[in-house]
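RECORD TYPE: inverse folding
INPUT: structure tokens
STRUCTURE:
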């Protein structure tokens, strides 16, 4: 089973979950590099992380090294990647963290489940969109309301890489304890109007663009009045 080293984090990923693009990024050390740098710049031992789209568990591992495993909660929709993320936390000596199976949804989501498109390469999997036929399987996964996740975890920092699922996510009211969001936006999925919708939702929650750590489609936003 391939094992990759990113700094002091070791990631064990089954070949069937890997894919050529992810393997190349891992070998080059560029896997989730922008998100990792943003987290390292902002996350403190006093913070608690909610990681949406945990995948390999890399971001959760980074946060666990800083604040301890009990401060880390991940959410992942692909059942096999849930197990990969959990195993990677333990592999890196991070105990007490949780990785939940499911997909984060806004308050307006009316069903207890979400239709999720599992693609050949795990990182491209996403909530199933109308007309989308490019997937290897369509799964029914638990719908986890973002407001409940934030309340239950007490998260102060949210990381979010969910391949377009963020489009409606921030129509949810975000609790005051959440001070920072690190998010990958996907303009190719939803265009300029979608980007505006995501940013409008964050702004409505008193979140403002933060230049420190933002690069390309990886955005850092902080609650107005908090330190960058």
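DESIGNED SEQUENCE:
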């Amino acid at each position: 089973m391939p094992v990759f080293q990113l700094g002091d984090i070791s990631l064990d990923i089954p070949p069937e979950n890997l894919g050529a693009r992810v393997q190349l990024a891992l070998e080059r050390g560029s896997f989730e590099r922008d998100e990792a740098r943003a987290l390292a710049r902002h996350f403190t031992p006093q913070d608690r992380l909610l990681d949406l789209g945990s995948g390999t568990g890399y971001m959760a591992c980074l946060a666990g090294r800083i604040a301890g495993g009990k401060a880390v909660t991940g959410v992942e929709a692909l059942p096999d990647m849930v197990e990969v993320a959990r195993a990677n936390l333990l592999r890196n000596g991070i105990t007490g963290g949780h990785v939940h199976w499911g997909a984060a949804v806004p308050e307006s989501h009316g069903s207890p489940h979400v239709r999720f498109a599992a693609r050949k390469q795990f990182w491209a999997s996403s909530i199933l969109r109308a007309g989308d036929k490019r997937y290897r399987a369509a799964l029914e996964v638990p719908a986890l309301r973002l407001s409940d996740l934030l309340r239950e975890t007490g998260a102060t920092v949210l990381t979010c890489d969910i391949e377009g699922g963020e489009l409606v996510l921030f129509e949810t009211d975000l609790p005051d304890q959440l001070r920072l969001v690190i998010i990958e936006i996907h303009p190719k999925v939803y265009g300029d109007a979608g980007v505006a919708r995501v940013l409008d939702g964050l702004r409505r929650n008193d979140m403002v663009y933060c230049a420190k750590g933002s690069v390309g489609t990886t955005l850092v936003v902080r609650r107005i009045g908090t330190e960058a």
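NOTES: The CA atoms of residues 117 and 126 lie 5 Å apart.
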